[in-house]
Amino acid sequence: MAREYDDAVLSITARYVAEVRAGHQPRLSDYLARYPQYAEAITDFVVYFHAVEVDIPAATSIMPPLSEQSQSALDQAWERIASSEMKSKHTFSSLLQLANLQGRSLPQLASDTGLSQDIIHKLEQHVIQVSTIPYAALKRLAQALQQPVGTILASLGSIDQQSGARSIAEAPAGYSQEHQPGEQVESFREAIERSAALNSEQKETWFAILTEEGI
Amino acid sequence: MVTMLSQGVVRTTFPPPIRKLHGSMEEDTLQEGTDNELVRRRMYLASIYHALPDYGSTAFWRAIEEPDEKAILPLEVLVKCLRLAITYQDDVGRNRIITTIIRRNQTSNEYWARHTLARLDVLPDERQTLEHDLYADLCESLIRALIDTKRLFWEEHFQHSLSFERKHVYQTCMRREGRWKSKSEHDPERVTVARRIPRSLIESLDRPAPRPDGDRQETQMVDERAQQELLAVEHADIPRLILHLPEKLKAVVWLIFWESKTEKEAAGILNVSDRTIRNRLHDALQLLRNDPRLKKEAMYG
Question: Which of A75, A80, B55, B267 has the fewest CB atoms inside 10 Å of its own CB, making it the most exposed?
């Protein structure tokens, strides 16, 4: 939604700028009347454009070597990006947060993975032992959420922070989980058996996968 | 839209054009013309992209990094190539293209960093540091935008996307430095940007602010006088004058002082009451009146 909003504002203001560059004198009032839903964002850009951008030279067709100032700014930018990437590797999102990032709802995620909503909910709550989850399920989640399996494992609260970037090929062993006293934890197989949302055919499919993976 | 998935593979789908809520037949024609132009531009960019040598070849890098001045690649195509490098997980190639894009824009970006801070009232050393930080912020923001493959607008309108990114970076920097008014910030002391404004305007603006429940006539007189003085400001200076005002106040000042609309017309355009317009105008004038830099200019001219 935010992306659509931004794209709409970009398109509208691009038209405004094109009119200015073509020597016309577009009126902000016309744009506000036509696009009242974007009024503030359009005003914000138009004022900034006339205050700052209108006199700035465009990109050149020649390629000078990087100036000292540009090189220094670029180096600093890369350092910051590398630093934030390091931090993000150690920041774990929940399954539903990851789904949100992809614009997927809980039912969509359940449908994409062949799991039911109640199973996804249990995974989200960390009440399924991660070591009992078949790799096929992790892989489906990873594909649906466009994330590495390591990130999915992390979202399930299964790996320590230092091994956050584990390889997809790594065996899902050595997990650790912390649970609150009294919290009922079950295996993936038990969760499948108890699921009220999965039909018998779906359950059979998962049992076959579990057997195949020796779980 | 034309989405170049990889070399030799083009998907052509067009998003629905943004439609206005109110419009005439003339505006429909204008919209149609704009859409046609956009389609032509996308096809043009796609044709250049497809004509490029194979990714990673010597000829490819020559086209990217050593362009003939007459056949220089549009920046939009460079963005497509950069995203192709990301698809191929070629980090080295990705960084080479990013550096190329920074080089192509460095004159413009360096000018922008200098220009935007030129009117800031800071010591020379502080200005240099601030300028460097601002430029580094822009580089960071630019890289993040370029590697975000969902931001397709960069592949079609690089220059406009860059302007938008610079606006965002500038506002973020000014907020961080406590020099930007946001909707929730109504502390006039936070606006500290110097602007050249006639002394007579400052004297007028410097009169005591009217009491909220005070004599309405007096309030109107003070505001009307301030408005008259604001009308005397160099027209080209108005955007810089109101740049740091909250968005809602900006629109009112712009419509009245840049486009010479009446309060009633402004109310109609913004779909608010005349009273709201007067209140916003009053708030805007008060913010300008309390600007410490303006007071300084009023004292020393």
Answer: A75
